[in-house]
Amino acid sequence: MISLAVTPHMAVWGKWLSDALGTTATGASAGNAIFGIFLSLVVYLIGQWLFKIGKGFFLFQPLFVGMVLGIFILFLLAKAFGTTTAVFYKSAYLPGGNIIFWFLNPATIAFAIPLYRRNDIVKRFWPVILLSLIVGLFISLVIIYWVAKLFGLNNAGIASMLPQAATTAIAMPISTAIGGNAAITAMACILNAVIIYALGDWLVKFFRINHDPIGAGLGLGTAGHTVGSAKALQLGSIQGSMASIAVVIISIVVDLVVPAFASFMGLH
């Protein structure tokens, strides 16, 4: 058990929150997974509700709302316990949060289903699909690296940014492996998804790929991951299938290329 010290002026709050978390009056238990699961589900459901009543307003995208609201709630609870957000996050949230994170891996593998359903397109255009994703990834890595350098990020910060082309479940462990911060990587992936959801239609028209379902799907899936795939599906079945294919293939490419790129650039 990991205890979080409660300051005297927070004693009442600490007692109430301890009871709510199912822990002792002295703090949160590292073995209690209920709180992390409950918080994850609640903030996501709130995001879904806001997204529905907001008629699809992009800032109410459930993943984005869940991230921001979850961080805010953890911050308030940490203050109430008289500890830091990082300590409270690791001891009270992670036991349940890790269970939620585990489900990201099979959910990512599920993208292979639309790939299988439209394997006729994959077989026909696989050289173009693979080459475009690889070239696009190399260009994005170079841009991310130099923009991060321009803004004065250290090696850990740059390493956190590099894997963001992959879906969150794959990008986070890659980030950790190359010396980055997985939480920052997750935030970057989610922000990418929100931006793509908001600007996806405009970007497709701006780059003149609105009449190219394969290109539109690959672009939205690569940049916006799961949310980008949902946006692509709104444009058509081929776009949605190509977006799902992009999520799978680009994640594999990122897993192979990003560690080598980070090592070449001396990040770890």
Give a structural overview.
- The chain is mostly helical.
- It has two domains: 95 residues, no CATH class; 157 residues, no CATH class.
- Helix content is 77%, strand content 0%.
- It is globular.
- The two termini are 34 Å apart.
- The N terminus is likely disordered.
- One of its GO terms (cellular component) is membrane.
- InterPro entries: CidB/LrgB (IPR007300).
Q: How many helices does DSSP assign?
A: 12
Tally of distinct domains = 2
Order of secondary-structure elements: HHHHHHHHHHHH
Strand content: under 5%
Ranges where pLDDT stays below 50 over 5 or more residues in a row are 1-14, 22-31
Shape descriptor reads globular
Mean pLDDT: 81
Count every beta strand, where a strand is a DSSP E run of 2 or more residues: 0
Structural class by SSE content: mainly alpha
- What's the gyration radius in Å? 21 Å
Measured distance between first and last alpha carbons: 34 Å
> Helical content, roughly?
over 70%
Largest sheet: none
GO cellular component, one term: membrane
Protein name: Antiholin-like protein LrgB
Subcellular location: Membrane
Main location: membrane
In short:
By secondary structure, the chain is mainly α. It has helices at residues 11-21, 34-53, 62-81, 85-102, 104-109, 112-117, 119-150, 155-161, 168-177, 182-206, 213-235, 237-264.
